[in-house]
Amino acid sequence: MDTRTTSRQDFESVSQQSGELELEEENTPATPFTLSKSIKDTEHFSKVCDAVCAGNSVLVLGEAGTGKGDFALALHQELSGEFNSAIATYKGSLKKFFIAIAFQLDIPTTETQYNKNGDPTGEKDLTVDDTVGESNQEKIQT
């Protein structure tokens, strides 16, 4: 069971009867709410799992607070034994977004820098270019 706390005055809660998101217009302090059933028990979750198993890609989108992050995490956990998968939440920084994905897929994001004598002097961040893309193409496709 997933329990969260919301700090907005107009807070969102999940209807226990319909499973749909409802907005309650109350002047209420931070109030906990509970999702009525497990994400993995929903029809939508089963359909998305079937789609991924059939070879389709999935992008989970939604309004803030609707549970899309939990849905994506549950999907990742459910299928991680069958697929080489990664999960990341985009929050305005593409660099951090792609680094999170690369880390989960064991794709290096830095390379060692050397001085003129060939001694290592530190690391530099890799950029998304043809060289990096080609060297990791096999990992991305599997």
Automatic annotation (TrEMBL):
Segments for region (Disordered): 1-34, 110-142
Domain of life: Bacteria
Gene3D superfamilies according to UniProt: P-loop containing nucleotide triphosphate hydrolases
Keywords, alphabetical: Plasmid
Positions with biased composition (Basic and acidic residues): 1-11
Polar residues: bias regions: 133-142
Protein name as it appears in the record: Uncharacterized protein
Species of provenance: Stanieria cyanosphaera (strain ATCC 29371 / PCC 7437)
